[in-house]
Design brief:
The protein is an alpha+beta fold. It folds into two domains: about 45 residues, no CATH class; about 30 residues, no CATH class. It is about 25% helix and about 10% strand. The chain has a two-stranded antiparallel sheet with strand order 1-2. It is elongated. The model has no long low-confidence stretch (mean pLDDT about 80).
Length: about 100
């Protein structure tokens, strides 16, 4: 039978074992500076995982996805500045203004 102590996240974060394994990592985020998140769970010897950037902001990559990947014209994309609208007009069947 395997047994281990039940620790809170705060207790885990303070333990040297979890620090050495980089179980939790601090990331720079524009809205949450110094945010602590779970690190890469698998530690492989030849392919080291890394957290390269924080989670994206809402609508941060819309222009790239809608214009770059989907090929929609700029005028056809809602900017979403007044609401949380993120669906391009052509997908919704609206005319571009």
């Amino acid at each position: 039978m395997t047994a281990a102590p039940v620790l809170t996240y705060t207790e885990q974060y303070a333990k040297p074992y979890f620090k050495a394994r980089r179980t939790y990592e601090q990331v720079g985020h524009p809205c949450l500076p110094g945010e602590v998140i779970c690190g890469i769970p698998w530690k492989l010897s030849r392919t080291l995982g890394a957290i390269r950037r924080p989670a994206p902001l809402v609508r941060e990559h819309n222009a790239y996805v809608f214009s770059g990947l989907m090929g929609l014209p700029e005028a056809d994309i809602c900017d979403g500045s007044s609401t949380l609208e993120v669906v391009p007009r052509s997908i919704k069947g609206e005319e571009a203004t």
